[in-house]
């Protein structure tokens, strides 16, 4: 199954800006890989909370739509909140 997540480029980076994003129900994330420049992104919590429950979310390729461009990625790591059903941060690698 193929998943597409709409995202935006993050201009503010750091702990404080990530906290502000989480309070606004956004998830900070990064896309990185060998030989390519990393991209800091953000997307809505509701866009990922349901699809991350499927096991092929972690094993298959996802599509991230940023400014009309589609980037194929794989999930590298994901941090969840300790006791709430929230995603704190996601690391993607270029597929």
TrEMBL record:
Coiled-coil intervals, chain numbering: none
Query: What residue range is the signal peptide?
Result: none
Q: Where is the Large ribosomal subunit protein bL25 L25 domain?
A: 5-92
> What Gene Ontology terms describe what this protein does at the molecular function level?
5S rRNA binding; structural constituent of ribosome
Tell me which UniProt keywords the record has, alphabetically.
Ribonucleoprotein, Ribosomal protein, RNA-binding, rRNA-binding
Stored Pfam families: Ribosomal_L25p
Q: Gene3D superfamilies of this UniProt entry?
A: Ribosomal Protein L25, Chain P
Annotated gene? rplY
Q: What is this protein called?
A: Large ribosomal subunit protein bL25
Function noted in UniProt: This is one of the proteins that binds to the 5S RNA in the ribosome where it forms part of the central protuberance.
Q: Which family does it belong to?
A: Belongs to the bacterial ribosomal protein bL25 family.
Q: Single Gene Ontology BP term?
A: translation
Query: What InterPro entries does this protein's entry cite?
Result: Rbsml_bL25/Gln-tRNA_synth_N, Ribosomal_bL25/Gln-tRNA_synth, Ribosomal_bL25_short, Ribosomal_L25_dom, Ribosomal_uL5_bac-type
Cellular component terms per the entry's GO annotation? cytosolic large ribosomal subunit
Fetch the HAMAP family from UniProt.
Answer: Ribosomal_bL25
Whom does it interact with, and what assembly results?
Part of the 50S ribosomal subunit; part of the 5S rRNA/L5/L18/L25 subcomplex. Contacts the 5S rRNA. Binds to the 5S rRNA independently of L5 and L18.
């Amino acid at each position: 199954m193929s998943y597409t997540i709409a995202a935006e480029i993050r201009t503010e980076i750091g702990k404080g800006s990530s906290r502000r994003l989480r309070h606004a129900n956004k998830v900070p994330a990064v896309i990185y890989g060998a030989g390519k420049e990393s991209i800091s992104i953000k997307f809505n919590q509701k866009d990922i909370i349901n699809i991350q429950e499927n096991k092929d979310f972690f094993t298959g390729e996802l599509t991230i739509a940023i400014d009309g461009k589609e980037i194929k990625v794989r999930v590298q790591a994901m941090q969840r909140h300790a006791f709430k059903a929230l995603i704190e941060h996601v690391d993607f690698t270029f597929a």
